[in-house]
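Retry 2 of 3 after timeout on previous attempt. Resubmitting structure tokens to design endpoint.
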């Protein structure tokens, strides 16, 4: 069975909130056992005594994550961490804005490199 590659999206986080880790693991185990998305959904409904089951794309994504990363949970997104709102950083930005109130926010942000 081919599992399609998929990059993490904000909807992945919604699925994590909607389905807990136990449900994700249950779905992956069912898929590995049956090899069928439809059988996985049926087995999920039966085992969990629910009418609703994860979508086929969600199951494929979880299986891919399991095979590639050994986990069904979402990793932290890559990239630069957001700035920390410390009193020093806030004071530095306020002082800069008061010195040059007509300067654009974009230019202000480039000149005020805040500490992370």
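Retry 2 succeeded. Sequence:
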């Amino acid at each position: 069975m081919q599992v399609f590659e998929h990059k993490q999206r904000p909807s992945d986080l919604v699925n994590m909130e909607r389905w807990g880790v136990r449900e994700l693991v249950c779905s992956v185990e069912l898929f590995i056992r049956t090899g069928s998305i439809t059988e996985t959904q049926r087995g999920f409904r039966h085992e969990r005594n629910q009418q609703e089951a994860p979508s086929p794309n969600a199951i494929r994504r979880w299986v891919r994550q399991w095979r590639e990363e050994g986990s069904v949970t979402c990793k932290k997104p890559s990239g630069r961490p957001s700035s920390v709102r410390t009193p020093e950083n806030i004071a530095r930005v306020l002082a800069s804005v008061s010195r040059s109130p007509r300067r654009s926010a974009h230019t202000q942000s480039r000149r005020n490199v805040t500490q992370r």
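Attempt log closed. DSSP finds six helices and no strands in the chain.
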